[in-house]
Structures are given as C-alpha cells and as structure tokens.
Design brief:
The complex is a heterodimer of chains A (about 180) and B (about 325). Chain A is α+β, with helices and mostly antiparallel strands. Chain A contains 5 helices and 5 strands. Chain A has a domain at about 45-150: Alpha-Beta Plaits (2-Layer Sandwich), CATH 3.30.70.3270. Chain A has helices spanning about 1-20, 65-70, 105, 135, 150; strands spanning about 45-50, 75-80, 85-95, 115, 130. In chain A, strand 2 and strand 3 form a beta hairpin. Chain B has about 325 residues and is mostly helical. Chain B is built from 11 helices and no strands. The termini of chain B are far apart. In chain B, about 70% of the residues lie in helices and about 0% in strands. Chain B has one domain (about 65-319). The chains are: A alpha+beta (about 180), B mainly alpha (about 325). The interface of A and B includes residues 12 and 20 of A. Bound molecules: iron/sulfur cluster (2 copies). One iron/sulfur cluster binds near residues 61 and 112 of chain A. One iron/sulfur cluster (SF4) binds near residues 68 and 93 of chain A.
Chain lengths: ~180, ~325
C-alpha cells in the first residue's frame, strides 16, 4: 500500500515536471500564412494540364483520367483538329469534389494531367471551384520535360505518317508477302 | 466615495476585475496549454493574441441562444445564473489586500464552503432540466463528486482554522504574519484542499461531470450561446476562487517582501496556482468515475481526519 502510494505520487510529480519542462522547448508550429512551409515536389495538390515540348496540348482526350477518378470529378469531351490530333473540346475538374488522390495522373498515358505542390485553392463561392481547361492548362511541360506523345505514338497526324514515330518500324505491307 | 472595505467603489472594482480576470483566463489557459504542448496557441488577434478574449466574447454573444423545446425552461435558464452568482458571492469574503475586499465576515470560511455547496444546485438543475441523458449523467456525477469532495475540503481547512483560531479569512492572513505561512504546518491539509479544489471546480483531471470523451459535455450539453458562456466563465471564476483561497489560507495572502504592493503579492501567488491548475490539465489524465469516488472516501477522508486529529493534539500539547 505504501509503495503504491509512493509510486503513484512520484509518477504524478514526474509527469507534471516533464510537461512543465516543455515550456522551454521551441514550438513545432509553422506560422503558415507568414511562413510558407516547404512543399515537397511530389505533393499532390492543384491539378494542371501540361503541354508537350512543342507547345501543343498533351491531353488526347482519352478519358482514362475521368474513368480512374474515384469521385468522378473530371468531365471532358473529345474532339479532333484538322491535323488529326485529338484534344479535349472542354476539360472540367470540379475541385470541390476532387480528393487529390492522384489517380488521374497515374492513369494518364500522355503525362498531360499532373498534380502540383500548390494547395491554396480556397474560394468563397462553390461555383468557383469548377476549373475549366483555360484555368488548368499551363504553358510548360510540368514534371516531364522531354515527353511528346505524338512523337512516339503510332497515330498518324499531319507531318508524321505511319511508321515515322520514334522506335516505330515501318508498317508491314501484308499484301506484298503473297506468293 | 472612498476605496475601503465594503464601499460601493471597491465592490464595483473587485467585481469587474474578477470577471475580467476570469475572461482573460480563456486566453491564458489556451496559451499556457499550447506552450506545454510545444504549440503557439492563439497569437493572431492583437499583441500576443491578447484580444482573443474580445473575439471570443463577440462570438459567444452573437451565437444563437437556444432553449431546447423539451427542456424545463425556468430551471434551464436559472442554472447558469446560479453558478455565476454563488462564485461571485464567494469572492465577497476574500481579503485581497489590506483595505481591499467586500466584507470581512467572521464566518468567511463557512460562507465560502456554503456557497460552494450551492454551486452543486447549478449543475444538478442544468442536467435535470435539459432532459438529455448525457446531461443527466453529467449532473449525477457532478452532484456526487461535489458533495463528497466538499467533505474533505471542509475538513482540510479546519486545521488552518484551528491554528489561527478564527473563521475570518482576513484574520487568518494576519495570523500568518506572526506564525508563518500555514503551508508548512498544514502541508497535508494544503494538498488535500488543492485536490478537493480541483474536484470542486471540476477542472481537469477531475472534470468527470463534463468529460467530453465519455458523455459529450456532461451537464451543459444542451447549452449554447451566452448561457454556455456563463458556465464557461463560471468554471474559470471557480478556478480563480480556489487559487485565491489557497493563497489566503496557506500562502499568507497578500503578505510578502515590502518592495511591492500587497495586492501584487496576492495576484502573483494566485496566478501561480492558476498556472498550476492549468499544468494539471496539461499533464494528468482523467481517472475513472468510481476511482475518483474511491480515492476520495477511502484515502482523502481518513488522511484529512488524521491531519486534523494530529493538528489538534499538537495545539493542545503546546498551549
Ligand atoms: S486527383 Fe483523384 S479525385 Fe482528383 S481529379 Fe484526379 S483522380 Fe479525380
Ligand atoms: S488528361 Fe490524360 S488521361 Fe485524361 S483525357 Fe487527357 S490524355 Fe487522357
């Protein structure tokens, strides 16, 4: 009984002292609006649509990101220009539903859609959280500087015929193999 | 009007100061807690966040003050007023400094104890009239806790009363001028009074009547707006009261080296205890309800009785 009381008392007093001694430990708080925290390059924040090194839109409107998105917050419509390149007629992300999971970036075959370290996206009106293609599209290449989908893809566009892409063999003429 | 014990001016000044300090404690507590938890706490509004209190006040005054339709209106409204009133009444017998106080009653100690007992009505009425099971549970716990801890609280002060031979708080301070602070002869009494004081003002770690993690907010679950604010400020008033009582009874009240005015010594000592209570909140986990009762009746009661007995024996054998 006496040892129990003694142990209880000492443990309480030690606890009090330990907590008190935190008074001269520097606070961990980052005073955010005054001090910007370091954001890691791979942070999953505001979504952008990037361009390829030639300055063309990377997105080919394949809809894979919209399918991968667990909250269905991406909407887009495919269209085609006269060169035969596919691009989205509109591309809309509803950021009030986006959970910044990054699945869209994983799914994208062209590295078009990318997440960035920016997280300051608060708005006063919910409607302002819906971003259109003009808001999403940036002028640079984002995280992948050299990648150009059409230069490696087999799709024929103006100025690049079948078989002219990088690492692509000339198509086999099956008829010429006839005896 | 002159500034003397019992004059209208001093009553007004004391009332305003006490309420102001209780309100400031909202900020003090949050700031101190965060320092002990390696955070910064509210530091945005005004210098060091001092105006946080103003912001909180504006918030609490403009909140919807909702009385649940199923509640018993009269006692629901009455309950928060009781706690504020009884605790403010208790301050009337506290001697802050020579010539500063509301009344020098020769039953000061008894008056404080009586008012503290009345405080139990506040939580009981709040819990009962809310017609909410969490509130009722909280009220049950509060009533049991306050009534049992009052017993040891009273007994623990009796040693001081026996030593000084008076119930008058001002006389008790004056007696300490001759005999030295009572914390030395009455150390056990002091510790018991401290523990009982925490339980009495249901501060953490003995905030069992309002334990958020168990029963929502206990007896004030249904309260909102200014009525909740009154419970809130009432709790801080209780904290200030207990701290100043400890100062008066055990630490010589306003006594101290003469280079500072007496009221300053009183404030300093009281603040030390307020900070200690906040440290308790930061450090000690809450016991279970039955542990609290067992601890009270099986440990504190015998110890406080023994303390009183030994004090009596010593007084008799030395006189
Ligand atoms: S980050 Fe996730 S939730 Fe947001 S758009 Fe991409 S897939 Fe959808
Ligand atoms: S962003 Fe990527 S995945 Fe989404 S439609 Fe465009 S190319 Fe496809």
């Amino acid at each position: 009984m006496l040892t129990l009381i003694k142990d209880t008392l000492t443990s309480q007093v030690v606890t009090l002292w330990r907590v008190f001694s935190h008074l001269w430990v520097k606070a961990d708080t980052v005073e955010y609006p005054d001090v910007q925290p370091y954001m890691f390059p791979r942070w999953r924040g505001r979504i952008i649509l990037s361009r390829d090194p030639d300055g063309e839109e990377r997105c080919v409107a394949c809809n894979l990101c919209a399918v991968a998105c667990p909250v269905d917050c991406i909407a887009l419509q495919k269209t085609e220009d006269e060169e035969g390149r596919w691009y989205p007629e509109f591309f809309r992300i509803n950021f009030s539903r986006c959970i910044m999971c990054g699945f869209c970036e994983e799914a994208c075959p062209t590295n078009a859609i990318q997440l960035t370290p920016d997280f300051e996206m608060a708005e006063y009106k919910r409607q302002d959280m819906v971003w259109e293609k003009e808001d999403l599209l940036i002028d640079g290449t984002g995280k992948y500087h050299d990648y150009n989908f059409y230069s490696v893809a087999g799709k024929k566009i103006a100025g690049k015929d079948k078989g002219e892409a990088l690492n692509e063999a000339v198509p086999v003429n099956v008829r010429s193999l006839l005896p | 009007m002159t500034f003397e014990v019992g004059s209208g001016l001093s009553i007004g000044v004391i009332l305003a100061t006490v309420i102001l300090i209780a309100a400031m404690l909202i900020w003090v507590e949050r700031r101190l807690l965060s320092f002990w938890q390696e955070r910064l706490g509210p530091n945005r509004v005004g210098p060091f966040g001092l105006l946080q209190v103003v912001a909180d006040m504006i918030k609490i005054f403009t909140k919807e003050d909702w009385v649940p339709p199923f509640a018993d209106k009269f006692s629901f409204v009455l309950a928060p007023a009781i706690i504020m009133t009884v605790i403010l009444m208790s301050f009337s017998v506290v001697p802050f400094a020579p010539g500063v106080g509301v009344v020098d009653s020769n039953i000061g100690v008894l008056f404080v104890l009586a008012m503290a007992s009345l405080g139990a009505y506040s939580v009981m009425l709040a819990g009962l009239s809310s017609d909410n099971k969490y509130a009722l549970l909280g009220a049950l716990r509060a009533a049991a806790q306050m009534i049992s801890y009052e017993v040891f609280m009273g007994i623990s002060i009796l040693g001081v009363v026996a030593l000084s031979g008076t119930f008058d708080l001002r006389e008790i301070v004056l007696a300490q001028e001759e005999n030295g602070w009572y914390v030395i002869p009455q150390f056990i009494g002091f510790v018991i009074f401290l523990i009982a004081g925490v339980a009495e003002s249901h501060r953490l770690p003995f905030d069992i009547p309002e334990a958020e993690q168990e029963i929502c907010a206990g007896y004030h679950t249904e309260y909102s707006g200014m009525k909740f604010g009154m419970f809130f400020v009432g709790e801080y008033l209780g904290l200030v009261l207990i701290s100043s009582l400890i100062t008066v009874l055990f630490f010589g009240g306003w006594l101290g080296p003469g280079f500072l005015p007496p009221i300053f010594w009183f404030a300093l000592k009281s603040f030390m205890f307020i900070a200690f209570f906040i440290l308790l909140r930061a450090a000690i986990p809450r016991p279970r309800y039955d542990q609290l009762m067992t601890y009270g009746w099986l440990f504190l009661l015998p110890v406080s009785l023994l303390n009183l007995l030994i004090t009596g024996v010593i007084i008799l054998s030395t006189s």
